[in-house]
Amino acid sequence: PGIDASCAGCGVKLQTTDKELSGYIPASAAERVPAICQRCFRIKNYNDASTVTIDQDDFLRLLGGIASTDSLVVHIVDLFDFEGSVISGLQRFVGSNPVLLVVNKIDLLPKAVNYNRIRNWVQQQAKEQGLKTVDVVLCSAKRNIGFDRVVEAIEHFRGRRDVYVVGATNVGKSTLINRIIQDYSDLDAELTTSRYPGTTLDAVHIPLDDGKSIIDTPGIVYSHRMTELVPRSVLQAILPDKPIKPLVYQLNEGQTMFVGALARFDFVSGDRQSFTLYISNGLEVHRTKLERAEELYANHKGVLLSPPSVEELDELPAWTRHSLRIPRGGDYDVFVSGLGWMQVNGTSGALVDVYVPKGVKVLVRDSLM
Ligand code: GDP
């Protein structure tokens, strides 16, 4: 580049002499238009390569391939959609390779949380899903929380092995790997990305300096997550971006809550008690009497009750009802994959009906918070 050329990506002054310094661009690439520095080049190419997704069958085949390698498996899950994003049976497919569970998006929890408690909860849930893990690390790729611990844990458990990174879509896998590419001090200038061409195993290889690689696998698509069913415009609304402000409602039996036209919660029977919604704070909640719920929905779906809009509703499966019994004693969550959960601080038990688009995973679990 000319003396004053700067990187079209980040604006840093370009230079071809020192790989260790910012703005380095290989001489062979210097005539590229627009010219971008090596660091931006990696990030850009990584991003282009990392949007690959895969369905369940291909994914299981891919996992089966990992069984015959000697590697560390890093499984990234989304704390906001834990049961929706966890790959149950992972251990069965990856053979004797250790699995490190990285739990992303902890920034979404309200400020005053006890991280030890969250970690214990995750360990318990993982166990119930049949997942054996060598360790659980909490982090936020986006807010850069716990990231050092993620890198440390990877280094600790990988020894001199390859690292396979697996996860469902939208768990933050790209964001996290981008952080690794940018911050991992061992990944100096030689770093480039490449793929196995022509296979469904369209994984991105990021070489490490000991000759091993971090292998980013395609994101598995689970159609039981609301995030996979809704159109893009609605995805923005349901994926929370900021710490969730819990919404507390005191309800009598016979009351209903709508979350836009995405979900409906009926408090069918039980003593008056509190229900706390943990959902993206951009979403609107409407309360009504159960006996009026059908009418309200029929007259207002897609308009007062939105998102989704009227047109977007056409793209979604019709609602299906889940009748749930919340046990007496203890605290439980009514979990809706991709949307969030409703906490029931019941000592008296309750019957709750949940309506969500057909296919979305709904379950009752021990309370996260
Ligand atoms: P991938 O599909 O697993 O590669 O996920 P992406 O990295 O593309 O992230 C999916 C969505 O989650 C994007 O909207 C990200 O901004 C968001 N995201 C990723 N990491 C975090 C995080 O730590 N916290 C929050 N709140 N959002 C995140």
From TrEMBL:
SUPFAM superfamilies, A to Z: P-loop containing nucleoside triphosphate hydrolases (SSF52540)
Q: Which residues form the CP-type G domain?
A: 56-223
Q: Name one GO molecular function term.
A: GTP binding
Q: Which UniProt keywords apply?
A: Oxidoreductase
* Pfam family of the protein (one): YqeH-like_C
- Spell out the Gene3D superfamilies in the cross-references: P-loop containing nucleotide triphosphate hydrolases
On the tree of life, the source organism's domain of life is: Bacteria
Q: What class of enzyme is it?
A: oxidoreductase
Q: Which organism is it from?
A: Paenibacillus curdlanolyticus YK9
Q: What is this protein called?
A: Ribosome biogenesis GTPase YqeH
Q: What is its EC number?
A: 1.14.13.39
